[in-house]
Design a protein that fits this description.
The model has no long low-confidence stretch (mean pLDDT 93). The protein is 0% helix and 48% strand. By secondary structure, it is mainly β. A hairpin with a 4-residue loop joins strand 7 and strand 8.
Amino acid sequence: QVQLVESGGGLVQAGGSLRLSCAASGRTFSSYAMGWFRQAPGKEREFVAAFSFGGDTTYYADSVKGRFTISRDNAKNTVYLQMNSLKNEDTAVYYCAVRDSIGAATTLRLYRYWGQGTQVTVSS
């Protein structure tokens, strides 16, 4: 079993930055693909960013490309999402997720383990 705990969310002004963290426990996740998703009020959960085991393949949603960066620290069993130039439309609950596979993926159903989410609110 894998437990994921997100942190780093909060209230930020448009144009600002936040770094989200996702700490994993239960087993070493360095051999599995990881991803970040988000869900805004009244909307479906959507893909944000993901990378493969090994980090050689990364995917970003078009809406965050060039502004967000996904990274990981295997020694700390932690994955990060650096979010810069935040916009009002980035407001959502952000979730990290782990696959039982080495390949990066953008589809929710391919991820087995999920964190509880952290709220990000961007104000004008």
